[in-house]
């Protein structure tokens, strides 16, 4: 099933680089509101998200609405020249609703109910929840649809963060309907799911259940389709809210995506065409080996969802979050670097959760623009500094990131490749994607992240890491691209299955055998920690393959391990282009070497290589406007050739740009206006 193309994106609702935040006035007495509005104006806040969790304050009992406080807050902010990103208040149901209708509560795979007390205590398929939620949305949209202070509409909040997968009976019935629409007949479903295995053949859609907890591995095709269904179900909910809003309002409608390493349940490629403004929430995840590199990846993927156009960072943290095992604070320099990394990679709006740190609740230790200690703090002064920098960068807004390399990213491959019964549980889709992305980033190669099947004609090089599940039409796009003169690097566990998770027979890597000029007879995974050496002297681990060449040549073979002498890295001429295949998990240096050769052959022009990732150089341009962002994550000062005007310090640069350790510089290049 083809996804709709991502439409072109225009400018964001406000000019320049927007500075914004979440605000929860319902948590504070009215006397604080006036002071907050004054401080927001002082800080240069352009956009404030409100009414995100306002349901219980707006609808105190079923059908009884109270808008006095929300009226006052919107008018107060508007009076101070601050625009509103107005939430629909539906992200968490009020206690009266879950008490009256406990059937809306979500159910996990083991059949247990999840109760109120946290957030998102609702089933995405529940018609009862939807009826009450849309009634509230209509009241809010009708009242504020033409308010001049409302610049943007914010549907719910982080949809699917906690409740994406619900296994209740209501969800089961909705899943059956979704399957009937997708397959048309029970025979087609049986063929797609391979139900002849383990006596799972269905005689009627009514026999199908969600993939609830079982005594053994569950049907992988059923699990994959349940992920698709769940993503579509929440998208349908988003679209229902947006439809109500658009009856009364003309301001754009959005919701905050969660493009991040620990959230994987929504296929945002299918969501993006239905969202007026692409917005993302991103927090540094210190559980990862390199959280800064993951930030850059998430920013590039969000830009891909925006079709290369401007996008919003809807949430980030000034300092620490509250939900990781170790919630690390940020220095002011790190906060500035994080913020400008998003800008460098296409964000024209930088917003924070939250304005004022809460004195109670589950997020009371989450950082804020105004911390518990107040405004005589390093955190507050760092916000003022960021605001000044963003004002000086206003002219960058509307320009686009310059990239001639693409990386194909697939949520269904993520779901399927990490499923049960795989050759190695140590092979995780996102880790392999990050490895290739990080190597390119360290080489100074800026990438666009694209969906399977996306147009590749403008790219010199395309990377396809661990692209496990892919349809024939989407695979053909990559094959045709290379045949026409393109260059690609494909890594192991790619092209193995079709979109139903059915293995392609005849030898791996299935969809890409001809493109790569190889046939893999057998996977030979390695236990974690086992190292192997290639004939090139490079190190690898985790994975090996019994591979034979058809039209490709071997660039390196295994020197030791289970397959000495078998090719491990190959290159193939295919049509007018070139493909490379990596049949093992190379160490970082070795992976950079392979990708550097591929980039050189493809004519990719890197910005500024930095093998340890401590320096990022990214370019944005629009016609004769050209900007170069230099982000120094290291402690040592660096110098790079540059000519033009540096915007962070507002001074001319001639010949050489010096960037102190931990700092960011942005140069409007000479000749650009």
Could you explain the architecture of this structure?
The protein is of the alpha/beta class and 673 residues long. The protein folds into three domains: 18-398, TIM Barrel, CATH 3.20.20; 405-602, Class I glutamine amidotransferase (GATase) domain (Rossmann fold), CATH 3.40.50.880; 615-669, Immunoglobulin-like (Sandwich). The chain has 17 helices and 29 strands. The chain has a nine-stranded parallel beta sheet. Strands 14-13-15-16-23-22-21 form a seven-stranded mixed beta sheet. The longest helix is centred in the middle third of the chain and has 29 residues, at 220-248. The chain is globular and about 75 Å long. 50% of the residues are buried. The model has no long low-confidence stretch (mean pLDDT 96).
Please describe the topology of this protein.
Blueprint: E1 18-22, H1 30-43, E2 47-50, H2 55-58, E3 59-61, E4 64-65, H3 68-79, E5 83-87, H4 95-100, H5 127-144, E6 150-154, H6 169-183, H7 186-193, H8 220-248, E7 253-254, E8 256-257, H9 268-271, E9 279-281, H10 291-305, E10 311-315, H11 332-344, E11 347-352, H12 378-392, E12 400-401, E13 405-408, H13 411-417, H14 429-442, E14 447-450, E15 461-464, H15 472-483, E16 487-491, H16 513-516, E17 518-523, E18 531-533, E19 539-541, E20 545-549, E21 553-557, E22 567-574, E23 577-582, E24 585-586, H17 588-602, E25 615-622, E26 625-632, E27 638-646, E28 651-659, E29 664-669
Parallel strand pairs: 1-2, 1-11, 2-5, 5-6, 6-7, 8-9, 9-10, 10-11, 13-14, 13-15, 15-16, 16-23
Antiparallel strand pairs: 3-4, 12-25, 17-20, 18-19, 19-24, 21-22, 22-23, 25-26, 26-29, 27-28, 27-29
Helix pairs in contact: 5-8, 11-12, 14-17
């Amino acid at each position: 099933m083809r996804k709709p193309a991502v439409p072109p994106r225009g400018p964001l609702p406000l000019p320049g680089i927007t500075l914004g935040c979440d605000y929860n006035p319902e948590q504070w007495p009215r006397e604080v509101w006036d002071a907050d509005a004054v401080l927001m104006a002082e800080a240069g806040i352009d956009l404030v998200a409100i009414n995100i969790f306002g349901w219980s304050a707006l609808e105190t009992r079923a059908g009884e609405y109270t808008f006095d406080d929300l009226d006052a807050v919107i008018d107060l902010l508007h009076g101070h020249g601050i625009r509103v990103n107005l939430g629909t208040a539906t992200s968490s149901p009020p206690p009266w609703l879950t008490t009256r209708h406990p059937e809306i509560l979500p159910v996990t795979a083991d059949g247990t109910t999840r109760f109120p007390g946290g957030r998102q205590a609702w089933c995405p398929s529940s018609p009862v929840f939807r009826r009450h939620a849309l009634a509230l949305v209509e009241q809010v949209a009708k009242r504020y649809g033409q308010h001049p202070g409302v610049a943007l509409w914010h549907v719910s909040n982080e949809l699917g963060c906690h409740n994406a997968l619900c296994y209740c009976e209501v969800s089961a019935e909705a899943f059956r309907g979704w399957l009937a629409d997708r397959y048309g007949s029970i025979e087609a479903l049986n063929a797609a799911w391979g139900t002849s295995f383990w006596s799972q053949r269905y005689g009627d859609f009514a026999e199908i259940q969600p993939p609830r907890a079982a005594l053994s591995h569950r049907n992988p095709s059923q699990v994959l389709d349940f992920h698709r269904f769940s993503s579509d179900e929440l998208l349908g909910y988003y679209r229902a809210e947006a439809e109500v809003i658009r009856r009364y309002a003309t301001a754009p409608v959005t919701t905050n995506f969660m493009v991040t390493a620990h959230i994987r349940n929504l296929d945002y490629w299918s969501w993006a065409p239905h969202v007026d403004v692409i917005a993302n929430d991103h927090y540094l995840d210190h559980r990862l080996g390199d959280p800064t590199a993951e930030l850059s990846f998430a920013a590039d993927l969000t830009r891909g969802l925006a079709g290369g156009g401007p996008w919003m960072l809807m949430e980030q943290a000034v300092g620490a979050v509250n939900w990781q095992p170790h919630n690390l604070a940020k220095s002011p320099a790190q906060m500035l670097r994080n913020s400008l990394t998003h800008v460098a990679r296409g964000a024209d709006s930088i917003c924070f959760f939250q304005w004022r740190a809460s004195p109670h609740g589950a997020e009371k230790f989450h950082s804020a623009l105004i911390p518990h200690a107040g405004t005589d703090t390093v955190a507050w002064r760092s916000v003022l500094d960021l605001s000044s920098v963003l004002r000086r960068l206003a002219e960058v807004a509307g320009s686009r990131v310059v990239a001639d390399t693409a990386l194909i990213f697939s949520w269904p491959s993520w779901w399927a490749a990490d499923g049960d019964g795989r050759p190695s549980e140590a092979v995780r889709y996102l880790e392999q994607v990050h490895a290739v992305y990080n190597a390119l980033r360290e080489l100074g190669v800026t990438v666009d992240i694209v969906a399977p099947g996306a147009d590749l004609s403008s790219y010199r090089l395309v990377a396809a890491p661990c692209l496990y599940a892919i349809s024939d039409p989407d695979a053909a796009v990559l094959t045709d691209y290379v045949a026409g003169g393109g260059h690609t690097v494909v890594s192991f566990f790619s092209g193995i299955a079709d979109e139903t998770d059915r293995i392609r027979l005849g030898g791996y890597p299935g969809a890409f055998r001809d493109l790569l000029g190889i046939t893999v007879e057998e996977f030979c995974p390695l236990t974690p920690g086992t190292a192997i050496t290639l004939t090139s002297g490079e190190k690898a681990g985790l994975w090996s393959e019994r591979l034979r060449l058809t039209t490709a040549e071997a660039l390196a073979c295994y020197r030791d391990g289970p397959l000495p002498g078998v090719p491990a890295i190959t290159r193939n001429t295919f049509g007018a282009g070139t493909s490379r295949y990596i049949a093992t998990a190379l160490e970082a240096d070795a992976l950079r070497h392979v990708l550097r050769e591929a980039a050189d052959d493809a004519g990719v022009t890197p910005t500024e290589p930095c093998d340890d990732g401590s320096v990022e150089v990214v370019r944005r341009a629009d016609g004769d406007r050209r900007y170069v962002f230099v982000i120094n994550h290291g402690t040592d000062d660096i110098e790079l050739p540059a000519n033009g005007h540096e915007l962070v310090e507002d001074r001319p640069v001639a010949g050489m740009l010096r960037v102190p350790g931990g700092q960011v510089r942005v140069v409007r290049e000479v000749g650009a206006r």
